[in-house]
Amino acid sequence: MILHADIDAFFASVEQVKNPRLRGRPVVVGGLPGEASVIASCSYEARRFGLHAGMPLREAARLCPQAVFLTGSYPEYRRASDAVFALLADLSPQVEVVSLDEAYVDLAGTEHLHGGAWRAARSLRRRALAATGLHVTVGIGPTRILARLMTACAKPDGIGFVEPARAQDFLGTLPLSALPGVGRKTLDLFGKLNLDRVGDLARLPESLLVETLGARGRTLSLLARGEDPRPVEGDRRKRSVSRRSALAEPSADLEMLAGYLFYLCERTALGLREIHARARSVRVSFEYADFKAREGQTTLADASDLEAELFAAAKPLFLKMLDRRVLVRRVGIDAHNLLFGAPRQALLFDPVHPPAPRSTPLPIEPSRAERTARLARAVAGIRRRHGFHRIVQGPSVALMGQLPQNEHGFVLRTSSLTR
């Protein structure tokens, strides 16, 4: 059996635990009402007014003017997430955390230890509430997709359980919108085929879905039958590290844009070092004020986890794609094609270090790459001890006075997702 755990209304719930006066009130996390941002999370009290994640804050303020709007804090949410999901290790060694508020647990072989999946779920919810004050909804099923769908049906603050023998009956009652990956366009297509329920999709020949939707058709056919071959991967490695942000104000100032780009490279490099990885490729994305987006990628000469080298690859690509005289509203960096483990060994015959004459016992000067790496390690050490904000370097100096700072660095938009 697979257990799927989801923390209810996560960001908003953390704020309500931190400030008990917010309990029972509509809470919106993502920014202030007048900001050009969207809801990152909202409480169930706010959802009664039609609010949901991804809704523009201006629209949320119109629908629910009495809501409490908060910018939020990613570090606080990270600590709360770690506290909840640390409890999963007591259920099974196979735990896969897929986001700040969502995780899977493979309960195979633990029946005698916990007295069954239902008791394991009850114990988890009770301990999470006692430790953090947060409510966790749990779904249990024979596959990942069934466990996830049971969680959605049990929300908020419940337990959903489906046995293998009843899986098809359960799926047959669900709307097609319940399946992950089924959006508005796909629903419109299924509507033309007179498909309304997951059970209707399961009865269609897989070949017809593949012919209609391509490779995604096979995936949807499997999910509609409750089949999900993906195991719970306890040691799953990240495929990429990305950081992105909307600008405080749309801008065409190249110095300001370079400042954002460099700062995002700093945060990306930090994320790479945290997972002991180096990137071989960098993808740069940005969005103009008219919402037209551009994206491109480049390959590094050597895999790296250094902000200076990521920026040296990203900036020329960014300037090349910046081909319109329109303000930019969003910038992003994505480091992918990762290598894990120790850094590349230096070449035996390094052209940067010509052999010194025998009569000159002077030490060999470090190469530029070595100096860059030493500087990055020194800066990272200071930031670990005294806060990320203690050192502002390179082009990100342009952000000083433009963005607020705290001990975690510049506060980007959306603040709740600032890493």
Can you tell me about this structure?
By secondary structure, the chain is α+β, with helices and mostly antiparallel strands. The protein has 3 domains: 64 residues, MutS, DNA mismatch repair protein, domain I (3-Layer(aba) Sandwich); 57 residues, DNA polymerase, domain 1 (Orthogonal Bundle), CATH 1.10.150; 178 residues, Dna Ligase, domain 1. It is built from 15 helices and 14 strands. It has a 5-stranded mixed β-sheet. It has a 4-stranded antiparallel β-sheet with strand order 9-12-10-11, with helices on one face. It has a 3-stranded mixed β-sheet with strand order 3-2-4. Helix 11 crosses helix 12 and helix 13 packs across helix 14. The longest helix is centred in the middle third of the chain and has 21 residues. It is globular. About 2% of the residues have low confidence.
**Count of individual beta strands:** 14
Assign an overall shape.
globular
**CATH topology grouping of the largest domain:** Dna Ligase, domain 1
Kindly state the percentage of residues in helix.
25-40%
Low-pLDDT parts are 345-353
N- to C-terminal distance: 34 Å
For the record, what is the CATH homologous superfamily label of the largest domain?
DNA polymerase, Y-family, little finger domain
Mean pLDDT: 88
Instruction: Summarize the biggest pleated sheet.
Output: 5 strands, mixed
Number of helices: 15
Oligomer state of the chains in this structure = single chain
Strand order of the largest sheet: 5-6-1-7-8
Number of domains: 3
- Structural class, by secondary structure, is alpha+beta
* N-to-C order of helices and strands: EHEEHHEHEEHHEHEHHHHHEHEEHEHEE
Return the CATH class of the largest domain: Alpha Beta
Overall radius of gyration: 25 Å
CATH architecture of the largest domain: 2-Layer Sandwich
